[in-house]
Amino acid sequence: MFPTDPSTASSNGFGNLLKKRPFMALWIGQIVSQVADKVFFILLISLVAEYQEQAQQGFGNSMRSAAMVAFTLPAILFGSGAGIFVDRFSKKQTMIASNVIRELLIIVLALLPKQPEQFLILLLLTFAISTVTQFFAPAEQAAIPLVVRHEELMSANALFAASTMGALIVGMIIGSPMLNVAHKWGGDYGREIFVGGLYLLSAVIIQFMRSKEKRIADKQVAVHPLTDLKAGLRYLKHNRLVSNAMVQLTILYSVFAALTVLAIELAPQIGLNNENGEFSFLLGAAGIGMVFGAGILGYWGDRLHSKPLPLVGFFIMSFVLAMFTLTTKIWLGLSLSVFLGVGAALIGVPMQTVIQQQTPEYMRGTVFGFENNAVNIALSLPLAITGPLTDALNNLLGADEGGANLGLRVVLLGMSLLVCVAGVWAWRNTRHVLQDVI
User: Fold this and answer.
1) CA distance 305 to 436
2) Which of 36, 44, 46 has the alpha carbon at shortest distance from 69?
3) pTM for the complete prediction?
4) pLDDT at site 56
5) Where in the chain is the domain with CATH 1.20.1250.20?
6) Given pLDDT bands bounded at 50, 70 and 90, which one contains residue 206?
7) What is the distance between the alpha carbons of residues 178 and 193, in angstroms, rounded to a whole number?
8) Does residue 44 contact residue 71 with C-beta atoms inside 8 Å?
9) Residue 215 carries which DSSP code?
10) What is the DSSP string of 320-377?
11) What CATH number has the domain spanning 13-150+171-211?
């Protein structure tokens, strides 16, 4: 599968990438960092529960909501600004500094007494950790083209997409058990030491990344960050290929955010038990599908680059969302979720590759900052709208003879139609140039 002679290996296969030490350092470092992010989220939920035990009864939900706001708000507020910062400084050093700072903040978190009057400090530390995280993401994406060749970007993005979803699944699965083990071995500070150690390990691994990052000429660096922000907006306005790719990624993440809400109500209709948290199986199956789809693109990308991959991906997602309304079997529901993940990979990997290939090096951080901003907003709006809309339609339409909520079916069919229309619209805007790019 992996030729020993690099000259005979497929330019878009995984073989060459796995032989590149700089790429491996970046890839493994970001995996460790992303696992740390997921485990920190689980740690945060545990800490909030401990504060709730000490607080007056009736404030539990408010404390949980406040923690979630502190965790998610920086992604919306500072995504673009972090991208501008990344363009002005070394991507490698930015990632290392981000990990080290988060490790130090978590050490401070460990020393914080679990008393209700200290809850505000917990929120501030959470906000600070999440803010620093916003600098890691655009630096990581902007660093990929620095450690691989132009023709290897599709495979590299496929590998990153697969590992990102894998880190999400693994982090959520092992997070709680590992925190329990760390608490048993390390005492009161064990959990924080474990999470901080993951960030520190990521920083050490990324230190071994060697890249040919060009020094940006003084004339390319704006005097004021606001000027960089305006320049980035002008670039997206005039480069319709990049902006369209960003729109497609935003639609993709919006669908997944809405599905996160709907999965809780959809799970019982296909035979899963929500009391045991089995709705997560639907999301996990979609993650497995994304890993599988990314693997296909990574190894056979050179044979598929001329195909309308994003259009096929949108059609697959549209079909799956419509089929969910008719599904009553567990095996079929999970199979459809896997298929949904494959469609998502056909959109996400090529579009991420397009953005990296078409964006000049001195502006990649800014563009990826905009992308992270758009994605986080895309994740927030469906989470806020989908639930109330489904409840309203359920109350209005009721249920069918089998007990399935008709409102849920209407929402799924509406999403299916919107995804199909969005896919056709996006492809019409890019089909003349996309085949020459990916």
Assistant:
1) 8
2) 44
3) 0.73
4) 57
5) 13-150+171-211, 221-438
6) very high
7) 12
8) yes
9) P
10) HHHHHTT---HHHHHHHHHHHHHHHHHHHHHHHHHHHHHS-GGGHHHHHHHHHHHHHH
11) 1.20.1250.20
* Cα first-last separation, the chain: 23
Picking from 48-52, 278-282, 324-328, which range would have the lowest pLDDT averaged per residue? 278-282
**What are the CA-CA distances from residue 260 to residues 34, 250, 254, 275, 380 (Å)?**
19, 15, 10, 16, 11
Map residue 11 onto helix, strand or coil: coil
pLDDT band at residue 47 using 50, 70 and 90 as cut-offs: confident
- Which one, of 284, 280, 243, lies nearest residue 264 by Cα? 280
Q: How far is residue 227 from each of residues 220, 224, 233, 247, measured CA to CA in Å?
A: 11, 5, 10, 23
Both tokens of 180, joined, read 């329990």
H helix or E strand, kind and range, residue 206: helix 190-206
Pairwise pLDDT comparison (370 vs 127), residue with the higher score = 127
Instruction: Kindly state the average pLDDT of the residues 389-411.
Output: 74
- CATH number for the domain whose boundaries are 221-438: 1.20.1250.20
